[in-house]
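pinning this so it doesn't scroll away 📌
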Amino acid sequence: MANSTMKSPGSSASRAATAPLGLALVVFGAATLLAGCSGSERGGKTLGFAVVGWRTSVYETPYMDECPDGLAQGNDELWWKGVPPEERAILTKDGTIEPVTATRRAMSVLRGPKGEDVCWNPTSVKDPPLRVVEGGTSYGMNLDGSTDDQGGANSCPHVNFKSPKGEAGIDNQLYRILGCTYGWRRHGYIEDNANGERRDTSHGIVLIEVSGVDDVTHDDQVEVAFFKKAEGDSLPKDHRADILPNATYRADSTPRYGGKTRGRIVDGVLETEPLDVTLPFYGNLTHLPLVMKGMRMQLPVNKADRFIEGTVAGYQDLDNFWDYVQRYEYLLVTGQFSCPGIYVAMKELADGYPDPKTGACTALSAAFTIRTVPAFIEHDGVEPSGLVKPAVARVASTSSEVAR
C-alpha cells in the first residue's frame, strides 16, 4: 500500500526541506493554490478537501450569558450530593479519592437504586433538569425553512435562534443541549482531545470533492461528494504537527459512508443541497458512524489559506446521538456531564423528522465547525452513489439499523 503523496503547488525550497520523507513536491500554477485541483468529466475543475478538524458549534459569550444558571452538573457532583456525608467520607476517604480515579468514577456512575449504570440505564434515576442554553444566539443554519417557533414540514415546534450576524430561524438543538456542558465548550476536553486524536491517528477523516467548478467565486451548479478516507493513508504533518495541505488520499470503498449531492458557489462559498448521509467519526478512542439527515455544508472554496473553516449542519439521528453519549461514559468526569440529564433533554428538545405514528421527533438539529485542508482524492474506480434530488431520502432511524 503506497503512502500518501504530497502535491503542493508553489512549494518553496524551505517547505520541501520540512516535508516528511516520501512526499513528492510538485510545482503547479498559482491558481491551484486554492485547493487540490484536477479536471472533471463534466467540465470544469475538481477541488478536493480533507476534513482535519470537527467540533460541535458552540456559541459562547465572555460572561457565559447563554448559561444563566451556570454550567451543567456533572455525574460525580450529582453522586456526591446524593450520598449522606458520613457514608461519603468513608467511600472517598474524606475526599482524598479524586473523581478521575477508576474507583470513584465507577461508584458515581453505578448510582441507580439497584446499582445500575446510569449511562446505560438513564431512566433508573431522576436527575435535576439539565442546564441548557437559554441564550438566543447560535451558530448553524435555518434547516426547516421556518423563522418562527412552530417548525416546518419535517420538524417539531421549538425555539429558534438567531445567528451572530442576525439571521433568523437558526436551528441548533444540539447546541441547546450541550452548550452549557463543560466538556463540549471551548477548550473542553471532549472536543479538543478528539481533534488531537484525529490528527495523530488519521482515523475518521472525511474527504470532500467538488467537481464541475467553472468559477470559484460564482457557479450555479457543482457536484459535491463526501467520502471516508481509506485506512492506512496518514495525514502528513510538518515539524509543528500541523497538517500539510495538498496531499493525496484514497477514497474508501466502504459503501456505508458518504454520498453525493448538488451545490452552488455564492461569493466564494460553497453551499450544498440537503443530503441524508452517514459519515465516519472518530474521537476519544471511539469509532462511530455519524448519521445525518438533511445535511448541508457551507465552505469557502476561493481562499488560498492553508486551513479553511466551514459549517456542516443538519439533523443528527437521535439514537445515533445517544450512542455517541453512551460511548463517552468514561469521560463523565473530565467532560462533566450527566447521562440521565442529557437523555431527558434530548427527548424533550428533539426537533427533526417526526415519527409518523407517535409524532415524536427522531432527530436533533445540529451544527458543526469543520477545519479543512486542500487535498487530492484518488478513487481506484470507486464512486459514491448517484446524485440525490433536493428532497431528502429516508435513512436508517437507528444506529443499529445502520450497522446492518
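📌 and the second one:
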Amino acid sequence: MALAEMKDIWRTYEMGDSLLHALRGVSFSIDQGEMIAIMGPSGSGKSTLLNLLGCLDTPTSGEYLLGGRDVSQLDDDALSEIRAREIGFIFQSYNLITQLNVVENIEVPLYYQGLSEHESYVRAVELAERVGLGHRLKHVPTELSGGERQRVGIARALASSPLIVLADEPTGNLDTKTGGQILDLLEKLNDEGVTMIVVTHDARVAGITDRTLHLVDGTLTNGPVRQT
C-alpha cells in the first residue's frame, strides 16, 4: 500500500462568475522511503498541490489517502492534528522563530507530542547533530548562515517523526554551493528512510529523486516542461 496517494484530485476556486481549475484530475502515489520532485512553470498548480498534500487545504473532489486514511474531507481540527503529527514541512524562507535558538526552534513541533521537557531537548539535540549543527545549538537564526537556517528547518521537519516530509523550494534562497549541500543532506536523509516530496524549480533536485512529476496547467504530464 502506498504511503500517500492522490486519486483524481480537483481543486477549483470561484473567481467572481467564473471558475479557476487549479488542479485537474491529479493522481499519483508515493511509497514509503521514496523521494519525488514536483516541477512545473509558475502558475502550474504546484503551490495548490503542496497545500493539499500538507493538509492545509482540502480538494474540491477526489481522495487523498495518507497512511491509508482518507484525509480529503476532514475538518480543520482533524487536519491540524495530522499536520502536527504526520507531516513535516521545509520552507524556502525557513520560517524560524527569531527569538529562539537552534534547539528551541527544533523543539517547536514536539510541544504537541506530549514529551517531557528533557525528552524534547534530547530529541532536538539529536536532530541538530543529525543535520550537522551540533556545534550551533545555542545560536539564534540571526547568527546563522542561510544554509544553517535551512538545516534547522530540516531538523524541525523531522522532529515529530512524520510519515512524510514536504519541502517547498528548499534551495530557493540559497547560493549554488549551499543549495547543493542542502540537496546532499536531503538525499542522505532519504537514504536513511525519510519519505519526501520536493516542490521546486531547481533542476538539480531531479538528480537526487526517484522520479519527477511535471505539472502544467493543473495537470500532470509525462515529460519535462520549460521552467519560468
